[in-house]
Amino acid sequence: MQIDKHKIVSIDYTLTDDQGEVIDSSEGSDPLAYLHGVGGIIPGLERELEGKSSGDKFKVSLAPEDGYGEWNEDLCQGVPRSEFADIEDLAEGMEFQVESDAGPMVITVVEIGEEIVKVDGNHPLAGMTLNFDVTVCEVREATAEEIEHGHAHGEGGQAH
To answer: pTM (2 decimals)?
Structure first.
């Protein structure tokens, strides 16, 4: 069975940066399961998986625009420290979910000053070339419930 829209796909993968450092991997855990064609994984990888079948192996290098996008200076802002008054032990690297004009987003504290806290709303992998080594483990039909929910259920997918 080939990968196309509304198929449940399970993959093993290793993600590295341009220096060969492993960023993420499914090694040692269940394969990643997702519903194909609904934006559940980054666009470039989803596009590369289209038409593949169980057992296929491939390597692909994705430019930032096909991954998590270019790094955007506009997503870095200074916020009054008073906005974090309820947070004990505020530290660089802490992440918070906030509401934006585009919906919920995660921001990361990058610098703490006496009056201003600098935050970054870019994805940590924004601006990076992403190198994937992928094995397609399984391709199956999605259930009506998986299509309705927009994600895979069961092993490697969402549990309800």
So the answer is: 0.83
Q: Which of 113, 52, 58 is nearest to 83 (CA)?
A: 113
Closest to 43 in 3D by CA, of 26, 59, 22, 64 = 64
**Closest Cα to residue 10, out of 68, 61, 64, 52?**
52
Summarize pLDDT for 82-117 with one digit per residue, the tens.
Answer: 999 999 899 999 999 998 887 899 999 999 999 999
pLDDT 10s digits, 113-123: 999 999 999 99
pLDDT for 50-74, tens place per residue? Answer: 999 999 999 999 999 999 999 999 9
Do the beta carbons of residue 59 and residue 43 sit within 8 Å?
no
Alpha-carbon distance of 115 to 50, in angstroms, equals 50
| Structural domains in the chain, sorted by start | 7-68+126-149 (3.10.50.40), 73-120 (2.40.10.330)
Rg of the chain taking only CA atoms, in angstroms: 19
